[in-house]
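Researcher: Next entry in the queue.
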Amino acid sequence: MKIDKSLMTGSTTMLILKLLENSDMYGYQMIEELERRSQNIFTLKAGTLYPLLHTLEQQNVIESYDAEVETVRPRKYYRLTKYGKKLLDEKKIEWNAYSSAVNRVLGGVGYDGI
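Model: Structure for this entry, 114 residues:
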């Protein structure tokens, strides 16, 4: 099923923060993990992800560090800051309220009128 990519707009930040909640990741790893967890529904291009990561870093939501790996050059990893963890919690609450409201309108889960 083809999904309208505009539905992802606005939730991308929350999804990236959720990926970083339990472990630090590098950019391409985030792209692959997001695709895997969403069964290829959510796909990000590097040209979309990296500007978002830079913005989140400027806002002190995430921080980056270089780590030596078995490649030619160090990889840049990202992790949540304390503020990022708080923001993720807020985004989850916001998403739950939003998705519940959409489901009520659509007559799905959480709909009390049936």
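Model: The chain has a mean pLDDT of 88.
Researcher: Noted, moving on.
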